[in-house]
Amino acid sequence: MIQTWLYIVLTLTASEWGFFGHKLINRVAVYTLPTEMIGWYKPYIDYLSDHAVDPDKRRYATKHEAVRHFIDLDRWGDTNFDHIPRYWDQILALNMVAYSVNKNDTTYLLKAIPHEMWSDSVADYHNRIELVRNHYLRQYYADEAAIPCDSLQMIFPDLKCNGNTTVYLHDVFSEHGIVPYHLQVMQRRLTNAFKNNDLESLLRTSAELGHYVADACVPLHTTANYNGQLTNQVGIHGFWESRIPELFAIDEFDMVVGTATYIDNPVNYFWNLVLTSHKEVDKVLSLEKQLSETYPSDKQYCMEDRLNANVRTQCADYARAYNLAMDKMVEDRFRVAVKAVGDAWYTAWVDAGQPTPPPYRAINKRNAADEELDKAVQKGKELGREHE
Ligand SMILES: [Zn+2]
């Protein structure tokens, strides 16, 4: 029943390549909500689904967006990632660089700590965290984070500061992806939207939190080899997360994932999503590699009509063979994502004190900010790391 209904809606609305999965996940997640919430979310289901893709659109509008969608875990270790601090200020503290500029001379004062040495016994760790909290976070989006020279004296008591010295901070972590930290920010934002009873912010933040949660469930969002570019498998990103769901999700994925449950510890929960995704990276890559070497090469790519254009894409039978080789992995990660989106929404509502949401009112599906986003997408240049 759910599936037939989804099919009708999505064949009408899934006009953007690659956006299908996010729209579907947010839509199905509404059905995981407990009775107290579902009656309230359901009238807005089209909004939640449409706006599921706003964060991907925003990648065209600001260079700060891309890093929120992934984390290159393999940059920071091989198999064990326990040493990576789970909190934003902690990881930034270990990856903070500070340099002073005096006339034309640049002097490096603070260096990043190599990841093999990350632990809370790092000298000055707590001072570094203070530096991040007091001086860096509020300037995170500035092109250059300038701070008073003497604020570094808690780390370097002998540092000489004079009127011509400016100190700059820069973190060397964010560019390699921050999704598990951004999820914590979004979760707090949704809790606050519930507390403030702010309908527009509540819906927008629900839709966008759903996006980042779903990204965290995709193995290729957790590796530096995110599009197979290091193993001669370029295009595998879209193959896994767009092509396979588009072909098989509606007819073959089991969409019933149970009722959303409360998340006791969102930090661990979000990290767990990323870590379990990462466990599948080797399989995602090696199974496609094997298949591409054994499957008839002239039957791997087909031309297909899409959005009034004839595009080259993986053939349906080839996609089926890859999906079969992965033994329901895509479906499993989809189901994990749906449940996790429901869990995150439900948890925000509980943490806000289970408020009665604002009464139903029709809200503008698209406002001026949405138009701006669409314009940026039409210009067609992604800023920061490209998606596929
Ligand atoms: Zn994304």
CATH fold label of the largest domain: P1 Nuclease
CATH architecture of the largest domain: Orthogonal Bundle
CATH homologous superfamily heading of the largest domain: P1 Nuclease
Helix-strand category? alpha+beta
Bound small molecules, which ones?
zinc ion
Features of this protein?
about 400 residues, alpha+beta, P1 Nuclease, 2 domains, 4-stranded antiparallel beta sheet, two-stranded antiparallel ribbon, 15 helices, 6 strands, about 50% helix, globular, binds zinc ion
Write the layout of secondary structure elements.
Blueprint: H1 2-13, H2 20-30, H3 35-41, H4 45-50, H5 54-58, H6 88-94, E1 96-102, E2 105-110, H7 125-136, E3 145-147, E4 165-171, H8 179-196, H9 199-216, H10 236-252, H11 266-278, H12 281-294, E5 301-306, E6 309-314, H13 316-325, H14 329-351, H15 368-379
Antiparallel strand pairs: 1-2, 1-4, 3-4, 5-6
This protein binds zinc ion.
